[in-house]
Amino acid sequence: MTKMNRETVIAEALGLLDEVGLDAVSTRRLAKRLGVEQPSLYWYFRTKRELLAAMAEAAMAPHATAPLPTPDDDWRAWFLDNTRSFRRTLLMRRDGARLHAGSTPTGDLDRIRRKMGFLVASGVPERDAQMAMLAASRFTVGSVLEEQADTGPGGSTDLPADMPPIDHDSAFEAGLTLILDGLAHRAGVQGTPVGE
Prior knowledge:
Layout: H1 6-20, H2 27-34, H3 48-59, H4 61-64, H5 75-91, H6 96-100, H7 109-121, H8 126-149, H9 168-187
């Protein structure tokens, strides 16, 4: 048995999530996976809610450790890259969007402030920057929720026969472009960055 610590418990819980999905994750199953008695998990997490919050934070590590913007970055290209990074990270885990939904990014607050500061320094009005970041985040979570729930043949559930299957990548990019174009319009900038 591997020496148990908080990080091991979280890593095994994420492994369990990938195997069985969020609805089937339980402290009983996790304890069995770790080869321990269920009450020993309470040494690290008093409640399942605390465990899920820690899992959500750990699952976001690839996005949370991505490079922050620099003053020389084009804010529009950065906005697209940042939102795409968030989506990729949510898609890395089975039920990643469900795990993340409703979580509070307590460990990420300084990074969020720096990202907001970058947008404002780039000429985006502060309130618009806040609302665009929130809209992009919620749009991304919703998009990934739909994508991860989409289990029908050809990738689309319950579509009429005369409707083409949903291309999740294209749908995400189209929605993200609309958010960016709206933000650019509010900031008085025309067009999306070259190469996008």
